[in-house]
Design a protein that fits this description.
Elements (H helix, E strand, L loop, with lengths): L14 E6 L9 H9 L5 E6 L12 H7 L2 E4 L10 H15 L4 E5 L7 H7 L3 E5 L14 H8 L5 E4 L2 H10 L6 E3 L22 E5 L8 H14 L4 E5 L5 H16 L6 E5 L3 H10 L2 E4 L15 H8 L4 E4 L14 E4 L4 H12 L2 H18 L2 H20 L3 H4 L2
Parallel strand pairs: 1-2, 1-4, 2-3, 4-5, 5-6, 6-7, 8-9, 8-11, 9-10, 11-12, 12-13
Helix pairs in contact: 1-13, 3-4, 7-11
């Protein structure tokens, strides 16, 4: 028997339940953290968080930070089993007992695939927020495909994706177009200021941030940089990021070996994982950001809009990137940076060379990038837009009759 929630009354503050496979904290998944914290102005927020390893170094202060943001967290849950009624029913009862009636669920990344069991128990609508792999390789996969098909048919469910190419994939999968929307991730602009960078007197420093997956295109970056550094001796390329899975560790080791074979060990540096505030300082100290994402057919992974690009642009950093996935939605060719085709090694070297040779162009692209982030990727503004989507979903779900809501 489900715990049927009373639809939120107009004027009341709804309670939104978030489901994330990651522990909840700024260092585990910054995008989820910013999204939920941004909604604290609009809703009471409760997070059911899982155990998936985070992207950055652990933050032991997560509980205090969440409490400061007014967010309540039910941590260390088996998010992968939430669609099992034997797990969902007692958890739903615990949630209502601790936090009161719930008005809506927001499922983040693969946490979204595990929400409908709780939604049935709580009698509430679901908004699923897709970031990348969840909207391409997992929609039709054996592990999550059936769950997403259930969500596709859920009455009143809304679907958001961080880039237009992912929105199109969701609609092709069968998500209702009238309830499937583009929603960019936002950057906390207060945490990033436009850096004052010296235009002369030092070799060019290039930063590329991201997990060591083949799709990120580190190999393309190395080969393009090898051609570039012959033209601009002394330039350096800094890879910032780590590994979450054994296959990513293998990719990292292969890249290090490639760097040594090409004699680039003094110019290309593997900096490892670092907290988001340290990454912001790296962007502020760099001259160019690089994002050479590529499509690997056997992996089937396609980027949305990588958050590292937005954070780099927020510091006034120009970007050289590939025409891949949602990247061109942020990196506007010859406005905020330069775009090249995937695996165009010579084109990548030429783009880096063009920026290295023209400090004024770097500054112009960087300032325009900051303006684009302020207008289209402002975390506060994006939170307001998401809050409005959630309210509309709650209202639309409340307008359904009881039979439709329990379908």
């Amino acid at each position: 028997m489900s715990i049927e929630a009373q639809p939120a009354t107009r004027g009341a503050v709804p309670t939104v339940l978030h489901v994330s496979a990651f522990p909840f904290g700024p260092s585990h998944h910054p995008g989820v953290w910013r999204t939920v914290c941004g909604l604290a102005r609009h809703f009471r927020n409760v997070v059911v968080s899982g155990r998936t390893s985070g992207y950055f170094q652990d933050n032991s202060d997560c509980d205090r930070l969440a409490a400061q943001a007014g967010i309540q967290v039910l941590a260390d849950q088996d998010v992968g089993a939430l669609n099992d009624r034997e797990v969902a029913a007692p958890l739903a009862a615990t949630i209502v007992q601790r936090y009161g009636p719930i008005d809506a669920i927001v499922g983040h990344l693969l946490g979204g695939a595990r929400t409908f069991g709780l939604a049935r128990q709580l009698g509430v609508p679901v908004l699923t927020f897709f970031h990348g792999d969840d909207a391409n390789i997992h929609l039709n996969g054996t592990k999550y495909g059936a769950d997403y098909a259930e969500l596709r048919a859920a009455p009143g469910a809304f679907f958001l994706a961080v880039s237009q190419n992912l929105v199109e994939r969701l609609i092709a999968f069968g998500m209702p177009p009238e309830r499937t929307f583009l929603h960019h991730l936002g950057v906390d602009l207060a945490s990033y200021t436009v850096a004052s960078r010296p235009e002369t007197g030092r070799p060019v420093k290039i930063v590329m941030a991201g997990i060591f997956r083949r799709q990120k295109g580190h190999q393309m970056a190395i080969r393009g940089f090898a051609e570039f550094v012959r033209r601009f001796p002394g330039a350096s390329l800094h890879f910032i990021g780590g590994t979450l899975k054994p296959e990513q560790q293998q990719v990292s080791e292969e890249l290090m070996a490639l760097v040594e074979r090409m004699g680039l060990g003094a110019a290309i540096r593997f900096r490892g994982r670092m907290p988001v505030e340290a990454l912001a300082r790296e962007f502020a100290d760099a001259d160019v950001a690089l994002q050479s994402s590529v499509f690997i057919p056997e992996d089937r992974q396609i980027e949305g809009v990588p958050n590292a690009i937005l954070e780099a642009m927020a510091t006034g950093l120009p970007v050289v990137a590939t025409r891949h996935g949602g990247i061109p939605e942020a990196v506007l060719h010859q406005r905020t940076g330069l775009l090249v085709d995937e695996w165009d090694i010579e084109g990548l070297a030429d783009a880096l060379s063009r920026l290295a040779a023209d400090p004024g162009l770097r500054r112009r692209y960087g300032l325009e990038g900051r303006r684009v982030v302020e207008e289209q990727f402002n975390a506060a503004r994006q939170s307001d837009l998401m809050a409005e989507r959630i309210r509309k979903m709650i209202e639309a779900y409340a307008a359904l009759n009881r039979g439709e809501r329990s379908a």
